[in-house]
Amino acid sequence: MAFEGDSNQQIFVGQGFVNINVLQSIPLSAINSEDSRFRITTKTEILELVESIQQLGLIHPPILKRHASEYVIISGFRRIAACRYLGWIEIPARILSSKISDDTCIQYAIADNTLQRPLNLVEISRSLFLLSSFFKDENQRLECASILGLPDNLSLIKKIEKICHLPKPIQDGILKSTISMAMGLELSKFEPNIGVALVKLFDQLKIGLNKQREIILLLDEIALRENTTIDSLLNEKDIKEILDNDELDRARKQKIIRVYLHRRRFPTLFKTKNEFEKLVKELKLGNSIKLMPPKDFEGPTYTLKVNFHNLAELKDFRTKLDRIIRSSGLQKILTKK
Amino acid sequence: MTITKLFINQHIKNFPETFSIQSRLNVPVEVVNESREVFDYILSAKDPIQEGKQTLYLTRNNGAFFKKCPGTRCYTCCDYKILHIGTFCHMDCTYCILQSYFHPPVLQYFVNHADLLAELRDVFAKKKIYRIGTGEFTDSMIWELWTDLSKLLVTAFSEQEYTVLELKTKTTAIEELYALPHNRKTIVAWSLNTNQMIKKEERHTASLSARLKAAAKCASWGYPLAFHFDPMVIYEGCEKDYKHVVHQLFAQVDPDKIVWISLGTLRFMLSLKGIIQKRFPNSRIIYGEFIAGLDGKMRYFKPLRIDLYRKMVAWIRDLAPDVLIYFCMEDDEIWNESLGFIPSEYGGLPQMLDTRAVKHCGLNPDGLIRK
Ligand code: SF4
């Protein structure tokens, strides 16, 4: 039996049920809280837990493993921190024998966490990554993941596993839903500081996934075109001024940043569009007529759109159209001269 | 890049061409029953494109040798015809469309030359003017290293008077052409680019000066020449560089020997972008001001194209006023803005090129009427 002393409670750890119902009182000073090999939780804040322990006591004791003269935490990092905060000297804990292998310990750690609450994506990632370091056989790993309530689809596992290696602010961005898992993984192709800066930008402007992609593409290609880095771009005066402008709300900042990046990525196209709009304005078409250029000024076809409610408006349009056709403005637009 | 493996299709293993190529290559040989085995071999490599450039597959062309060029209706096409002698290329240009055209790309050479010649005889028998090239799915001259292709083709074309062959290349593999009785029915053509582009984006190709030297040699052997500034890439200082190329060209080559010069700026399918990013992370050519063209290919924003074309036309006309300049896959606006006319004023681009071929290559003008 793996546990020291008698026990009644059982926990499933892949190979079978092991009895773990023996509680021992362990001095907190003998517990090594620095060793986070088996840490699954992403939470560090303990005040709520402190309050609960104060009122109800420690309902669910941590699991520890004896290691030489001290104890390594298998699960219960926050509970132990809360008890330390409360000034406890000792803590009741379930103790695993020092003979128990690390892979079994990992399964205890995952099982104990999943039994208490649903894991978030980063915790799932850590769990899968911990498992992968011990199960070289893919099928065994999938089986174990499935038993522990973790995803058991290999391609999904491969994606999720990477999340726990992302810089902390990117992981936090995923947990806060500032970015999706897919975006988190996309950001991993950049230097960590760039990924972090982008998450900060997305968080500040509350940008949705499609626009995040658009902004990344623009920044990446501008940086490549201009032989600079995304990081330096984001720190440029022009961009900083937009972001730091207190008179603009988020939506406005978002729009201005996107326009700015488009203009910088496609300067000639942008200039041509502006000139076209200026010339169209001079035609004084009014609200019911719209003149549109060929897409990106590539094809030969211009579009004229007319909204009208009745015959009188349509007749009015005919007069206007006559005037437009004779105008030098339209000539300029069509001949681009 | 050197060939590291030779696959031979079982059905052609006893063809004389197969023996001949095999004897010139000292690499491991594997006979396969079907192409799938070769494709699987290529696809299992870490970089299948790279592997495809080093693996030569000798097989037969079960389809047509004589094909239409896959132009689109949205832009003016030159109505070129393709002689499908093989696929892919062992040189490695960043922008090469063949990287995404074949799945997977394999250096494939068709050895059923009796079928090829039979098809050519049918084409010649039509007595219509055709411009046929071998440089659409491959570089025309890379095969010179291991085959006698130019001898076969140049000789075949020299014996008729309606069709002209264009051998388009970035190599200098012209030695075999020297002794061939070409009868001016073969145009030797080079793609030209600036030294910077050749160095950075056209790996394993010949330098500009080497290409021009080879061209001058071919001219001295009586071959008509053609040049293709394609793809022109817009980068800082490109104008000065392209002007320099034009000057270098006419310093080496007599304009009278040139049948035509084509101009085309870089264009690419979006599917190629990812390949370029992966295989050539240091290349910057795909980050220009590209928009999606009417044919779905990415091309430079039109005013940028017009601007560069206008300048190129002026530089070329300055030194070679009588050379025919044409655009590859551009529309009337580009023609008008850059050359001052549109092809339909001269009967259309195919007619313009055919007439030029008749004049420079000694084709029979009756072939124009039959078209
Ligand atoms: S020379 Fe032509 S065929 Fe060969 S890699 Fe370059 S573009 Fe492709």
Task: Please provide a brief summary of the model.
The complex is a heterodimer of chains A (337) and B (371). Chain A has 337 residues and is of the alpha/beta class. Chain A has helices at 47-56, 77-85, 102-116, 121-132, 138-147, 154-163, 168-175, 181-187, 192-205, 209-225, 230-234, 237-244, 250-265, 267-282, 311-326, 328-335; strands at 10-12, 17-19, 23-27, 31-32, 63-67, 70-75, 90-96, 289-292, 303-306.
Care to describe what's here?
The complex is a heterodimer of chains A (about 325) and B (about 375). With about 325 residues, chain A is α/β, with parallel strands linked by helices. Chain A has helices at about 45-55, 75-85, 100-115, 120-130, 140-145, 155-165, 170-175, 180-185, 190-205, 210-225, 230-235, 235-245, 250-265, 265-280, 310-325, 330-335, and strands at about 10, 15-20, 25, 30, 65, 70-75, 90-95, 290, 305. Chain A has 3 domains: about 1-115, Conserved hypothetical protein from pyrococcus furiosus pfu- 392566-001, ParB domain (Alpha-Beta Complex); about 165-265, no CATH class; about 280-335, no CATH class. Chain A contains 16 helices and 9 strands. Chain A has a 5-stranded mixed β-sheet. In chain A, strand 1 (about 10) and strand 2 form a beta hairpin. In chain A, helix 10 runs parallel beside helix 13 and helix 13 packs across helix 14. The radius of gyration of chain A is 31 Å and the shape is elongated. With about 375 residues, chain B is an alpha/beta fold. Chain B has one domain (about 65-100, about 115-370): pyruvate-formate lyase- activating enzyme. Helices cover about 40% and strands about 20% of the residues of chain B. Chain B has 14 helices and 18 strands. Chain B starts with a strand and ends with a helix. Chains A and B meet through helix 10 and helix 14 of A and helix 11 of B. The structure holds iron/sulfur cluster. Iron/sulfur cluster binds next to strand 7 of chain B.
